[in-house]
Write a structure and sequence with these properties.
One of its GO terms (biological process) is response to other organism. It is built from 8 helices and 26 strands. It is α/β, with parallel strands linked by helices. Bound molecules: 2-acetamido-2-deoxy-beta-D-glucopyranose (4 copies). One 2-acetamido-2-deoxy-beta-D-glucopyranose (NAG) binds at residues 223, 225-226, 244-245.
């Protein structure tokens, strides 16, 4: 379809947002951007129904220039570019039935979406692009990779119309133009995977309607500026060289759905996050954040994914109430955060959990019996900690997790004979985990540990050791233990 309808424009926005999110989840943004200066004419878009329509001649010449600069000289043979019927150009007629270019896209995005490709060795962005005063969407994907060039600052002259700017995987070098602060109608700015350096320009704070900012996979440095965007849904700054504290104004924006600042050099604590009630994903992994986790994480009721792996300077105990009420949490990563002390019993109440990674820490005590409630768990990493005592899972769960259950390198994990877990389970035996009631299977260090805990009385029964290390949790723990025992008993009868 050559002639844009409002539906076509909305579809494109959806497509772009999906690209940014990968496959993890889908966010639907309606294309309710600032009203166009154009008067949208009849929306049939069918060939023949607009026979009298011309394309604005200055824009036509500009499109020729832009096509030539990307190695698409064939387009210059097309007498009316708005009727050229190639994917990647959209036009809208004004009240005098003159067509204006509203969208240009380049690059082989997918098999279904074949925009004109660029000659990667000599393509450039033609300055004639500034002669398209109605352009709302500009999209270049893998276009200048073998001809590294800065992002031209003249794009900022499209400020009165441009809503979506995507320059993705283009090999751009140099800074983000400071002039981009003049793109005040932008809702989507996507500069993913270039070689951009310098800092994030503070001028971007002048863009009031920005909904998606993706600057991921570049070489941006400096601190994240204290700017804010009242409608921001997606903030992706992952894989840069950003340092300094987490940006409080950005992170407390109410409209946020996804925040990824992973793989940078961000330091300092996680601030109180009282704003973003609808936040679904928070990834702050591989930075140098310090602990402890703030209790205010509890406010992020919609959170499905929280990833804090690889922040070795967190070095704190995991607060028992940090995740209280996060009933939608499916993925929780606290690997290599130097966390110490016990695993909170409350984690076992997050029944939606599918992936839980607590490996590479100094967690001690036992695996909370409440973990037996985590029936959706498909991956659990507890390896490289100081855990002791029985594994509170039924045989089926251990089978289902298979190699994604990682328990090796702990002080003294074992399985209870009554649980039905046997030596035939590869995952357990390869992790060096034996039966709780055979002293020869319990490493010497953990026997010592258990016996110290119980005032020198050597404990052999695992059930007793759980009860004693969980004394602090009192009746609840004992109830769960009793329930677990009943389940295990029924389970072993069934087998
Ligand atoms: C923004 O545009 C105005 C003119 O509209 C210009 O005077 C100003 O220098 C521009 N600012 C930037 C940062 O480019
Ligand atoms: C950005 O990279 C260019 C080379 O591509 C270099 O000349 C320039 O000094 C770098 N700027 C910063 C701020 O690192
Ligand atoms: C943002 O504000 C915080 C708190 O006022 C401050 O610590 C931080 O340095 C500021 N960041 C920048 C980049 O100015
Ligand atoms: C766990 O380690 C902490 C220090 O990190 C220590 O105070 C506590 O007694 C240990 N608890 C157990 C059950 O070993």
């Amino acid at each position: 379809m050559t002639f844009a309808t409002p539906q076509a424009t909305t579809l494109l926005v959806l497509l772009l947002v999906n690209v940014q999110l990968g496959t993890s989840f889908t966010v639907i943004l309606s294309d309710s951007g600032a009203p166009s200066t154009l008067v949208d004419g009849p929306q049939s878009g069918l060939p023949g129904s607009n026979n009298g329509a011309r394309t604005d001649s200055k824009e036509q010449q500009a499109v020729y220039d832009i096509m030539r600069a990307t190695g698409n000289d064939w387009a210059t043979d097309i007498p009316n570019v708005c009727r050229g019927r190639w994917h990647g150009i959209e036009c809208v007629p004004d009240k005098d039935n003159v067509f204006h270019v509203v969208s240009l896209s380049f690059g082989a995005l997918s098999d279904d979406t074949a925009f004109p490709t660029c000659d990667p060795t000599q393509s450039t962005i033609s300055p004639s692009i500034t002669k398209l005063p109605h352009l709302r969407t500009l999209f270049f994907y893998r276009c200048f990779t073998n001809n590294p060039q800065p992002i031209p600052s003249f794009l900022a002259q499209l400020g009165s119309s441009l809503q979506t700017l995507v320059l993705r995987e283009n090999g751009h070098i140099g800074p983000i133009p400071y002039e981009f602060g003049n793109l005040t109608r932008l809702t989507v700015l996507d500069l993913h995977k270039n070689n951009l350096n310098g800092s994030i320009p503070i001028s971007l704070g002048q863009i009031p309607g920005l909904r998606s900012l993706d600057l991921s996979s570049n070489r941006l440095s400096g601190s994240i500026p204290n700017i804010s965007f009242p409608s921001l849904s997606i903030l992706d700054l992952n894989q840069n060289h950003l340092k300094g504290p987490l940006p409080i104004p950005l992170l407390t924006t109410n409209s946020l759905l996804k925040v990824d600042i992973s793989r940078n050099r961000i330091s300092g604590p996680i601030p109180d996050l009282n704003g973003p009630k609808n936040l679904i994903l928070l990834d702050l992994s591989y930075n140098t954040l310090t602990g402890p986790l703030p209790d205010s994480l509890q406010n992020l009721k919609s959170l499905q994914t929280l990833i804090l792996n690889g922040n070795p300077s967190m070095s704190a105990t995991i607060p028992d109430n940090a995740f209280r009420g996060l009933d939608n949490l499916m993925i929780l990563g606290l690997s290599n955060t130097n966390s110490e002390g016990p695993i909170p019993e409350s984690l076992g109440r997050l029944t939606m959990l599918r992936v839980l990674r607590l490996d590479g820490n100094r967690l001690n005590g036992t695996i909370p019996p409440s973990f037996a409630n985590l029936n959706g768990l498909s991956e659990l990493r507890l390896d490289d900690n100081k855990l002791i005592g029985p594994i509170p899972f039924k045989r089926e769960r251990v089978w289902e997790m298979g190699r994604k259950l990682r328990l090796h390198n702990n002080l003294g994990l074992c399985y209870d004979q009554k649980s039905g877990l046997g030596d035939d389970l590869d995952t357990l035996s390869s992790a060096g985990i034996g039966r709780c009631d055979t002293s020869k299977n319990v490493p010497a260090s953990s026997i010592q540990h258990i016996s110290t805990l119980n005032n020198g009385n050597m404990l052999i029964s695992s059930t007793k050791s759980v009860a004693s290390t969980h004394k602090i949790n009192g009746a609840l723990s004992r109830k769960i233990l009793a329930l677990t025992a009943i389940f295990l008993f029924i389970n072993s009868c069934l087998l």
